[in-house]
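Chapter review. Work through the record for AtpZ/AtpI family protein before attempting the end-of-chapter questions.
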Amino acid sequence: MSLRKRNSQLSSHTPSQGAANDSADAGNDGGYNAGIAVFSYIVGGIIVWSLIGWGLDNLWGTRWIVLLGALLGAAGGFYLSHMHGLTRQSSSSGESNADSGPSTDGDSNAK
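Structure tokens for AtpZ/AtpI family protein:
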């Protein structure tokens, strides 16, 4: 590529266009990032609490606490995902739910 052609390409790209493109790209993968976070919470919880259950099984001579630990870890992962606002539908305003913080609905949805 010639130096003149490269300079014309660089000058045609204004900083405001770059910022707009960067923010648009960041908004497109918000669902993917939230999905990875949910997956990480659940799998991480299962692994950690299964290892704790396995240790307690070896200590106490039982064989069922590892299963209880896995179930507790999965439930904890779902709970953390919900509290961080990762399990809600995305809003129409383009705001990522991962950026909105913990869920604040409390008991207002109870019937």
